[in-house]
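Intended use. Records like the one below are meant for learning the mapping from a protein sequence to its folded structure. Do not use them to infer anything beyond what is encoded.
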Amino acid sequence: MTDKEDRESKKEKVLSQTTKKQSSNEVPLESDSKSETVSELSELDKALKDRDNYYDSMLRATAEVENIKKRTAKEVENAYKYSIESILEQIIPIYDSLSLSCSHKEKDINKDQVLEGNKILLSMFQQLFEKNNILEINPVNEAFNPDLHQAISTHEDKSKKNDVIHEVIQKGYMLNDRIIKPALVVVIKNTK
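Structure written out for the chain above:
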């Protein structure tokens, strides 16, 4: 049943009830009674229109919420998918420089040029790390911290205290206070 049919059905019910009242009273329907019936019908019409408007508003709001969910999911997906784009823009020039240096013939390159090129590449990486809040962990002669360091060996040295880092095999790295890679270290362990 459509809304229009529903309204018509309700109007007919109100009219039939009014007609029953009129026939039971044996007094002819007065103009006040007619105006009350018309008033009730207009109120009913208004209520039905309000209901339709509220229902329409609810449907629109529900659709808007669904659209927001889909749009947000897409934005999160794109943020995840392209999150490394900015760092790649900084790594690509370093890669290009390294590729260029490797493409030269051995005869054309001397040791000083290779050393100078390596220093430039190292400098480019250090700038990349600074821009992206990547900190280097190089804990020589510091106390061993299992949260920052990974012991791969021990060394005995009576001149130093136990659990002090003797040597750093590989530096560690930290991104915004989160360990990306712990430093690989050799720790002092003296036997008694």
